[in-house]
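Appendix B. Extra example for self-study. Work through it before the problem class; the solution is given directly after the inputs so you can check yourself.
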Amino acid sequence: MAKKRNAFYAQSGGVTAVINASACGVIETARKHKDRIGKLYAGRNGILGALEEDLIDTSKESAAAIAALRYTPSGAFGSARYKLKSLEQNRAEYERLIEVFKAHDIGYFFYNGGGDSADTCLKVSQLSSAMGYPLQAIHVPKTVDNDLPITDCCPGFGSVAKYVATSIREAGFDVESMAKTSTKVFVLEVMGRHAGWITAACGLASEAAGEAPHILLFPEIPFDQDKFIAKVDATVKRAGFCVIGVSEGLQTADGKFLSDAGLRDAFGHAQLGGVAPVIANLVKEKLKLKYHWAVADYLQRAARHIASKTDVAQAYAVGKAAVELALKGHNAVMPAIVRKSNKPYKWSVGTADLAKVANVEKKMPRDFITADGFHITAKCRTYLGPLIQGEDYPPFRNGLPRYVRLKNVAVPKKLGTPFKL
Amino acid sequence: MAKKRNAFYAQSGGVTAVINASACGVIETARKHKDRIGKLYAGRNGILGALEEDLIDTSKESAAAIAALRYTPSGAFGSARYKLKSLEQNRAEYERLIEVFKAHDIGYFFYNGGGDSADTCLKVSQLSSAMGYPLQAIHVPKTVDNDLPITDCCPGFGSVAKYVATSIREAGFDVESMAKTSTKVFVLEVMGRHAGWITAACGLASEAAGEAPHILLFPEIPFDQDKFIAKVDATVKRAGFCVIGVSEGLQTADGKFLSDAGLRDAFGHAQLGGVAPVIANLVKEKLKLKYHWAVADYLQRAARHIASKTDVAQAYAVGKAAVELALKGHNAVMPAIVRKSNKPYKWSVGTADLAKVANVEKKMPRDFITADGFHITAKCRTYLGPLIQGEDYPPFRNGLPRYVRLKNVAVPKKLGTPFKL
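Solution. Structure tokens for the complete assembly:
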């Protein structure tokens, strides 16, 4: 029988409405296998917790607290934007990880993140093997950007998709009812700097012809100002109003972000961020139409109150599968969502080789975007539709979502050697 | 027995998540009194519909469609930002209204709006009386700004309050979990140009010490840059992060809106709107901290998916009460929410004299804001808390809220005389 060893779980990169549901899946499943997995430690602030030997003992949390992770957005143990350098550039960092793992008898490494962390997870697996330290490294997929390869979709994305589609539908109703005497053009800026998946999800709100949103601006399609203005003009003339979803990563043909369009405050300081005001201003300058704009920013990825039930289930499932894969002896793999059918939507969890996942970015296929570049196709709807299915409301108290805060009790240090990041 | 006459209903000003719930209350109640109220007409695009004799026959809508108004945001018949001038300045407009009412035998005028429309409603009542035309004018309160006097709160506000409190709590969890290596300061801009009620509602999210939001910037408190920066600095040093809710109407001591702080694009065009980026930029300039900002804009007032159950019930109740007041012979009044007790929260619908409502703006009392001007007091929580109680989710289809679109069948014109607005 395999030796009982401890496990380490860390959250990486931008958090989502459901990354804690994956944590819940990992922890609850590990607790069911106490014969094989001893303690499950979490990294405080993600991988920094491992580097700094700042581990959290998840066994100190009640079953109820862990269950509440399923409906709590954000990263319960802290996440980090910290990309380990290449093995050649900073081998010391990887060796430090192995040193900490060794000190705490960690045999399982669960890393919950996007493309960068898949790469880190793979490298940790390779180095531990080269160093003769037995470690199984499993990547747990997470990213609102939906840009990981192999997996049909990425946990975290479905909930953002549901949020932006719901929000732009609601704002569309609002603008439509006021357009006669007030705002004619409304612009909603959404995330997705390189891939237009979230922008595409806005398009789900327009189920019938003429419904908002009327125009989507994808990062994959270079911004053509004249064509855009003509489209807005035609839409307002036809429908009386125009609702636009725009990616924060919208670029001109020469690769410049529109959000860096040179906004300056009264003192001449560069004003960073915000493609929505740039687009709205353009509409005003060219067409003299009254506009409003919104920037959803973190609200969209934190909006657990309107999470997709499908997304929550998948986030939990990949966490659970990660532990099961580890127990079956897998290493350097990632549980991946496999689409079995569209109608009815059926999915299962398969296994992806990390070497094929790391550092590959999945953008929107061209045939998911209409020929004019301003909306999504039926093929895209078929893909996106199932991902926003179902509601999974958190419990409320005093009129507000009751999210959990863990105790996050530190594990006594064994090394005691500081590590400089 | 009183003569059977027709009724006219119109929506006015910025729409809300629950103004259609008031419409639902008006229409369903009118339908129960067919012995007294004949047809219920709605104004297409609010009062413009009356001026242009563009009436909608609500009797063409099914009971199911009218019931669906209860969970559909925006203005189902179209609303208008159109303020009638004073009687002295444009008596012709008021006379035209009476002319259209007369042509369609309208004896009941239900006007659903904020302070301006209360004033219009009162004037229409006065002029019809002066002209010897029998009309009962009842104002139905609605405004996300919560700034009407006499009524304890305004339908529309509770749902925005629930949305902003939920959103800033969720974003707060997000920022807190990432702050070690990423964003330290997050700014959410909310509505309420003159009154800080919505900003105050953000504060409900911080139920325990140290919870987000940490700082609120009210339109009632002149912005003191040095004090604000010192507060952000202290908060980040203590908590590791800082979440800020700011009113779009934040002003400096000399009455200048911060959103007009002089942002210009690369071509020198003024960039309108957005106090959040101005505040965020200030934090970056002074404290060199990484920031993010969001502008909720129309998303907040259209967010029917996270409406307050209390608010929906009150919106329906004032619509219902308006019809009942009319049937009892009232004129130039407004149904008002009366708070009976806080724990448990109990309310009823009373009656306010329109002369006391029109053109009075209720701002936040100073004792609802903490001494330092940056948060809400316990007294404010006691007032606001009940207004966001309960969830009232709309039905969903294909993963999205299923909102109704009415047929909005036009009533044949009787006058045929055009009216120039």
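Self-check: The CA atoms of residues 88 and 168 of chain A lie 46 Å apart. If your reasoning did not lead you there, revisit section 3.
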